[in-house]
Design goal:
This protein has 343 residues and is α+β, with helices and mostly antiparallel strands. It has seven helices and 20 strands. The protein has a four-stranded antiparallel sheet, with helices on one face. The radius of gyration is 23 Å and the shape is globular.
């Protein structure tokens, strides 16, 4: 699924199953497991991800039967018992204790070791925190939006929610994703619903250079690669005719090797190489319009079939007045990208 835009950050589901694996996968996308700063953000996570998180191979089990969707968040007390911190390093300004008995710390825990297994008293280091996305086991015990501390590989968890900061230029968000290879960086960009950046103009190239520049020579993968002898192509369908090659480049255009393009971070010029070990610049299209301010006249200009629904949060869905929607212009791809439960 595409990353979801909300209040200046991108949010994406990352695989675990353990907390530490989920955090590592969030790092590869340029972020951390989510830092929750207030009640509104906590509610946004529940409303947006309740039907998207996987458990036991099933996505968004809303039947009310236990277990129900949980997701790892960035809070933990792995360094010092009882001192909770966010993996992003941000200060703890909001704390949802989830009933007194849900933050129990290290000690004996009555639990099974696997789904459906027999329960017994087991000593567990309950250093990692998850969020409950749907009410279950009766409202007196678990309610949606509540948090619990538990152990790193607790079997009820398969995935986490990552929060990724970004910089914006036009209608695109840009994020540094991990490589080290070009292919790995492209795969991480795709996990956010984007691609390694397509550079369309000297203005965009200059902005990228100024945003990510370094004093010493290094590089960042961009979305251009050689697809056959003499031909380089971008990863997006629209492509671009703009280039900014360094002197003598591309020097691998007719050789026998795969060639991938990076931007020098100390000059902004481009180079092709069989595969240098760098991070990559991911570009993700985002919709930052506040449709709640739109008048009837404004809605006449909305191209409903072109909106990036896969990046919409529950808040974004609610900001639109769907009575003006031109459903007749929707094609199969548009329908498949809609989250009908939020309309």
């Amino acid at each position: 699924m595409s990353a979801i835009y909300y209040e200046g950050s991108l949010y994406a589901i990352v695989d675990g199953p353990s907390w530490q694996e989920a955090e590592a996968n969030a790092n590869k996308l340029g972020g951390h497991l989510v830092t929750i700063n207030n009640k509104e953000e906590n509610e946004f996570l529940v409303d947006t991800f309740d039907e998207k998180i996987s458990y036991g191979g099933k996505i968004g089990d809303l039947s009310g039967a236990y277990p129900v969707p949980h997701a790892w968040i960035g809070m933990n007390d792995a360094e010092e018992e009882g001192t909770y911190v966010w993996s992003s390093g941000e200060p703890v300004t909001y704390f949802e204790p989830s009933k007194d008995n849900q933050f129990t710390g290290d000690g004996l825990t009555w639990t099974a070791e696997y789904s459906g297994g027999p329960a017994s008293w087991v000593y567990k280091n309950e250093d990692y925190v998850g969020i409950q996305l749907v009410s279950g086991l009766g409202e007196d015990y678990w309610e949606e939006g509540m948090w619990e501390d538990t152990w790193d590989d607790m079997y009820l968890y398969e995935q986490g929610i990552a929060e990724i900061p970004f910089v914006q230029f036009g209608d695109s968000a840009y994020v540094l994703v991990e490589g080290p290879s070009w292919e790995e960086a492209q795969a991480n960009a795709e996990k956010l619903g984007g691609n390694l950046v397509t550079i369309n103009s000297a203005e965009e190239n200059e902005w990228l250079f100024n945003t990510f520049k370094t004093e010493s020579e290094s590089g960042l993968h961009i979305g251009l690669k050689k697809v056959q002898s003499g031909l380089y192509e971008w990863q997006t369908e629209t492509g671009s005719n703009y280039t900014n090659w360094a002197s003598g480049e591309p020097n691998g255009i007719f050789d026998e090797y795969n060639q991938y393009v990076h931007m020098y971070t100390n000059t902004g010029l481009w180079n092709d190489h069989p595969d240098s070990p760098f991070q990559g610049i991911a570009e993700i299209k985002i919709d930052v319009e506040d449709y709640s301010t739109y008048s009837e006249e404004d809605y006449t200009d909305v191209q409903w079939h072109e909106l990036s629904y896969t990046s919409f949060s529950s808040v974004k869905y609610q900001s639109l007045n769907w009575s003006y929607a031109d459903f007749g212009g929707f094609n199969d791809d548009t329908w498949s990208n809609l989250y009908l439960g939020k309309i």
